[in-house]
Design brief:
Helix content: 40-55%
Largest sheet: 5 strands, mixed
Strand content: 15-25%
Order of helices and strands: EHHEHEEHHHEEHE
Number of helices: 7
Number of strands: 7
Shape: globular
Strand order of the largest sheet: 1-2-7-5-6
Distance between the termini: 13 Å
Oligomer: single chain
């Protein structure tokens, strides 16, 4: 992991999350409280570049699509989430079925695949329903769909905001 900016104001992160939009979705309503909870425990924020092995090992929390938008299929085969590499590869192998069962979630992933990369929010500890197992280094707090979209695009690195 390479530190790109050792001190990032929280307002910058909040503004990026607040600006993120996908038709029918605004991640701010669930992401901003999680970032606030992290901020309560953090000594500040930094912007980092994740190396390929760190990006692949990012822990994604369990995801059942967007049930409120009619999605019906869980991501992957476990109930506790998985690494970006494992779930990204699973998604590639089950793309047709996942797209048919989860049009909302799939739309967000595919939109992210088409867009330029953007910063994720990751943490070295659990927050809310973003549970980091002991064997994982970082859990994705905001940006699950963008991480999967980047993986499907072929990216093997990313930038992220990380609490210190």
């Amino acid at each position: 992991m390479r530190i790109l900016s050792p001190a990032v104001p929280r307002a910058v992160i909040d503004d990026e999350i607040g600006a993120a939009r996908y038709p029918g979705h605004s991640p701010a309503r669930w992401a901003l409280p999680l970032v606030a909870a992290l901020d309560d425990e953090a000594r500040g924020w930094q912007r980092v570049a994740l190396a390929p092995d760190e990006f692949a090992a990012l822990w994604l929390p369990p995801h059942a699509g967007e049930p409120c938008h009619g999605d019906t299929m869980a991501l992957g085969t476990t109930t506790d989430g998985g690494t970006l590499a494992t779930l990204g590869d699973w998604l590639d192998a089950h793309a047709d079925a996942y797209a048919a069962a989860n049009p909302s979630c799939w739309g967000r992933i595919e939109a992210a695949r088409q867009e330029p990369p953007s910063c994720l929010v990751v943490a070295g500890w659990s927050v809310g329903d973003r549970v980091k197992p002991d064997h994982a280094a970082l859990v994705v707090v905001d940006g699950l769909h963008r991480a999967l979209g980047a993986w499907r695009r072929g990216d093997r690195t990313c930038e992220a905001y990380l609490p210190r």
